Amino acid sequence: MGDEEGLGAHDLQDIEIIMEDKEGLVCGEHSDMQDKHVDMELGEPTQDPISWPQNGEITLEWIVNLMETFKWASWNKSLSEFASIMPHFVVEELITKASHILCQEPNCVKIQCDNNTEVVVIGDLRGQYLDLLGIWESVGLPSDKQLFVFNGNYIDRGKSSLELFLVLLAWKVFLPHRIYLLRGNHESSDISEICGFLKEVNRKFPEHGQTVYRKCLEVFAELPLASIIADCVYTTHGGLFRSEGITSSQSFGEKEIQDDHGNKSGRKKQKITTTLCLGSLDELHQVSRFVQDLSAKDAILTDVLWSDPTTESGLTENNRGDAGLLWGPDCTEAFLEHSKLKVIIRSHEGPDSIACQKGLKNMLEGYSTDHEVESGKLHTLFSAPDYPQHTSKDYKSKGAYAILKPPNFDTPEFVSFEARKRHEAEIKTISFAQQSDSAATSSGADIAFRASGIATSPSWIISLADDVGTPAQISEASKVEGSPLPSDLQCRNLTSPITSTS
Ligand SMILES: [Mn+2]
């Protein structure tokens, strides 16, 4: 393995997990962790197929082997060999075990923290498994001193969605109160089917792809929707959400929003409907979240996973993906004030979707501060750097994570980081030339994706990670992606400049 070329075997050698707190949550959850001092190194895996632990209990050693096997395989194995290192029945066992925990969590998990604990919040990861390892390398793994909250969108776009999600599930099973996995809008049947995850699973499990995919959809629907950390920070994938009944005594914010609307924003009156007012955490708590297909549009469920903040006051329907809401600073203030919270950390918007909206922030550092109001702040956090990968659009963006520190936990410290260098074989892709937005929007396929709220169509790419050196069959794209081919196809290697054929 060429360590000098990127994330090498030695890169995680310095990470130590010290499990020494005899009274800590870790010990309470795992007797085998008690008094244990573990030096963790991610090195060469055993290269045997992963097997399910004999007594059914996941250990730290099992997770470390899983992590290093996936890293090793991402450089040394083809996609179609994946099932030989991670058998489908092990995947299914792991998901079943995680499901037992996740389905018992409430829609909005309340995370209490003591003064010895830091909380790390992480945004969209989008299948960029090596970048997740990079985060852990710099900040450390889940432990009795460090708790993680993930804001969803583990999958689609990056090539290792399955590995990334399975590793997170393994940690969830191992330390259920040290890692919280929230749902993103991509963790749904309607989006994961068209944006790459289904294709990835089918290529990794040529025989059992449908079974594994269905199993993933089941656990996606069990992921909780939001968290409240230390009674002061609300995190979720999209953001705020509507009240589903104006007569509900639990809804609030209607008056403030309407007044502000009429007086300041100049927005057309018909945009203001009497039924669109801000929902409360009580209402979020009551949502039936175990729904695989989010296009079914339970309003609160889709809002919380799809909504975006805006600089304009008020609460309006979002035109991005025909789902969710746009909410203004007045709504952020109303929500924080009513919920007695100080910070919102949401994700959902990366550099590509921001680039579609003129005049707004960029996400080139992986985070932004969107609203600063009397009661607190709203931030957007995106943790997939160099996004979207495998496309000709390159924003050279950084990813970021946020650290919340005791005793107050109310001032997130944002840390930006660059993408891990990927293996040369992975970068060799054939992509359809997408040299201009005008070319992209001329494609019916791209328009369809934009209508789904997907800023960058996935239909432009065929990854050659599993058959490097073999010419790709371009026509595979239309079958795989279910989209018509653009008329101006070009092949290129992303390591070389685009050859212009005008
Ligand atoms: Mn999203």
TrEMBL record:
Pfam families in the record: Metallophos
**InterPro entries reported in the protein's UniProt record:** Calcineurin-like_PHP, Metallo-depent_PP-like, PPP_phosphatase, Ser/Thr-sp_prot-phosphatase
Does the record bear Kinase in its keywords?
A: no
Residue ranges, annotated region (Disordered): 475-502
- EC annotation? 3.1.3.16
Asked whether the UniProt record includes Iron-sulfur among its keywords, one would answer no
Q: Which GO terms describe its molecular function?
A: metal ion binding; protein serine/threonine phosphatase activity
Task: Give residue spans, biased composition: Polar residues.
Answer: 490-502
Q: Which cofactor does it need?
A: Mn(2+)
Q: Where in this chain does the record put each Serine/threonine specific protein phosphatases domain?
A: 182-187
Task: Please list the reactions this protein catalyses.
Answer: O-phospho-L-threonyl-[protein] + H2O = L-threonyl-[protein] + phosphate
Q: Which UniProt keywords apply?
A: Hydrolase, Manganese, Metal-binding
Q: Which family does it belong to?
A: Belongs to the PPP phosphatase family.
Q: Which PANTHER family match?
A: SERINE/THREONINE-PROTEIN PHOSPHATASE 5-RELATED, SERINE_THREONINE-PROTEIN PHOSPHATASE 7
- The molecule here is called Serine/threonine-protein phosphatase
Q: Which organism is it from?
A: Salix purpurea (Purple osier willow)
